[in-house]
Fold this sequence. Notes:
Number of helices: 16
Low-confidence stretches: 1-9, 20-44, 47-56, 549-557
Oligomer: single chain
Helix content: 25-40%
Number of strands: 29
Strand order of the largest sheet: 18-17-16-15-19-24-26-27-28-29
Largest sheet: 10 strands, mixed
Amino acid sequence: xxxxxxxxxxxxxxxxxxxxxxxxxxxxxxxxxxxxxxxxxxxxxxxxxxxxxxxxxxxxxxxxxxxxxxxxxxxxxxxxxxxxxxxxxxxxxxxxxxxxxxxxxxxxxxxxxxxxxxxxxxxxxxxxxxxxxxxxxxxxxxxxxxxxxxxxxxxxxxxxxxxxxxxxxxxxxxxxxxxxxxxxxxxxxxxxxxxxxxxxxxxxxxxxxxxxxxxxxxxxxxxxxxxxxxxxxxxxxxxxxxxxxxxxxxxxxxxxxxxxxxxxxxxxxxxxxxxxxxxxxxxxxxxxxxxxxxxxxxxxxxxxxxxxxxxxxxxxxxxxxxxxxxxxxxxxxxxxxxxxxxxxxxxxxxxxxxxxxxxxxxxxxxxxxxxxxxxxxxxxxxxxxxxxxxxxxxxxxxxxxxxxxxxxxxxxxxxxxxxxxxxxxxxxxxxxxxxxxxxxxxxxxxxxxxxxxxxxxxxxxxxxxxxxxxxxxxxxxxxxxxxxxxxxxxxxxxxxxxxxxxxxxxxxxxxxxxxxxxxxxxxxxxxxxxxxxxxxxxxxxxxxxxxxxxxxxxxxx
Length: 557
């Protein structure tokens, strides 16, 4: 502050705050009361303190944003703070800042994050120390600590579709009160009643979500999503300059630009702090940033490291898990032939991401990931992995020629704005009316909807890929879904390891059958009503089609 004497500082701060409150109560325009002149006289630092006291965004000097350490950057964080995290899984996560929060020991924290991270990293240490009382997220499937705490009533959970989460964050930073979105229409997101907090035995809801307002625009239904603002935004950047301008790296951009604007105080953990960033390479202007510190250690953890086989690699005996992978690959190889040259297609998590490994020589498409990449490539060869290049399943991948990176809100703008030709995603259940359920088994399994609700509501062609039989021999193609829906009447085609099913105005039609199954077996593990196409075909063999494509010098199916 501009005054060295603490008492003098407090007196002038009180005078400033009192003057502004007087203006507010009397309704007199602050501009005519000379508040701007008072700001100049009192000084920049005094205005910042008063602004914090009044609950508005902190004023920060563009020349004093660099802090010595993460501990210094979070020095004023208190119990009960609301915190937004950039990042997608562990990529683009302000990990050193989170370690400092765990060490500081503040409690009662309410977190806004795309995921719950993992049990041992990111939010994991804070959850283990019971520092978090509420999580607002789209996907929590990889954190066993969080799942246990939620199912035993220790923590509150508010599930938000991933695209809605990105948009609510963006709206908060843009000063927009809310927006009407398609995601979640006809699901528990709209109707409310999802258990935010449950009893200790996990059987009874103590607190439930509220219903959303529905409006009808241009023959479509939408629900209201309100903007969110928080006390602190924790952002991870590849580079920052001393004015707070930021540059992100590859898919580590994800939620970071969207979360940056919604915080009263935005704290950036940068891998590098430089004197200046080329203006054409600045992804986020410094006006969104209040504090910057250089990461004392850059961890670069990888959640899911998978490789493609090198040409000519020896193949050993398959494990049980590899047998499961074989089924998944079989489904993915058939799914490739849904694609056509020039398509932009989103691939969800699970089996869909395997599709990217099976497009070579068959079709030329741009594969879209909601984590902020258009142009996903195959899994890398061992030794070529880059932890800042992942897919929506948080698996390390490569980049296709002509790829691009973008923020999470932009990724879902592409989805919401019908800029995709097809959506391909997995599921737990699909009903005979084309409903899909793939995000939670109440009381047993908490995964989260991720971006699925956004994807199935966008109006593009929806293809579901899943194993036909559940883990305990249960049917997954059912008459009616028994678990909470992701979307209603949205599935166009279903591809399983048993066959291909089309959803038509006249009902479900089996159009292709696997060479490895029979019609009787399909009926045994299917409770949905379906008819058999008079032109029933065998599921095409991927290798045969590939050989034909190469022989004929074709790349389209």
